[in-house]
Amino acid sequence: MKEMIECQDVSFSYPASTLPDSERQAGGALKHISCTIEDGSFVLLCGTSGCGKTTMTRLFNGLIPHYHEGTYTGSVYLDGKDTRDLSLFDISLKVGSVFQNPRSQFFNVDTTSELAFGPENHGIAEDLVRDRVKRVAAQLKLEPLLDRSIFSLSGGEKQKIACGSAAAIDPDIYVLDEPSSNLDAYAIADFRQLLFTLKSQGKTIIISEHRLYYLSG
């Protein structure tokens, strides 16, 4: 199968002054990581707090080295290209990111505008943006959330919109960093179904998690 991501002897450490206590105690570093992730894979990153799960996701979505500073050696290849040589804009066409706190990635105050934001910023024509929003809402069962205030949504609903926003760009890869951390049991069940919908579309999914039970099967 096609390799979507390849890490070659990657090491990374943050400046010590920027680390939270948990990561400072753990070293806050990745050392000599080599791996490949194939097209259509569902990959779980798990481990204790501060072990580097979030850092791995930042390597995959280009936030390292383009946003987060630190000491970085080795290479991460995205579809055969070194992420150092790609802009964050280019990476965002291939990788959709969903963060632990979805509020940190919203740019609009209503859900429909939020779903449209990514395609609009990538220069897609207005009529095609509307079609994408409609299609993503249908595929991920987001229709009841359309035209709602972001501030009126529950934690689970916000996470669904965050996933929908990523899906509206139609990336090949989804990188999710502890997406269940603010969700209750009912929201986690819904979110699980959303993940498996994306998997059924042949997408590559990389998820950093400490709750593992909902990902089985």
Can you describe what's shown?
Keywords: ATP-binding, Cell membrane, Membrane, Nucleotide-binding, Repeat, Translocase, Transport. One of its GO terms (molecular function) is ATP binding. The two termini are 22 Å apart. 33% of the residues are buried. α5 runs parallel beside α7 and α7 (155-167) runs parallel beside α8 (185-200). The mean pLDDT is 90. The strands form 2 sheets. The protein has a 4-stranded antiparallel beta sheet with strand order 2-1-4-5, covered by helices on one side. A 4-stranded parallel beta sheet has the order 3-8-7-6, with helices on both faces. It is α/β, with parallel strands linked by helices and 217 residues long. The protein has 8 helices and 8 strands, in the order βαββααββαβαααβαβ. It has a single domain, classed as Rossmann fold (3-Layer(aba) Sandwich).
Summarize the structure.
The chain has eight helices and eight strands. The chain is an alpha/beta fold. This is ABC superfamily ATP binding cassette transporter, ABC protein.
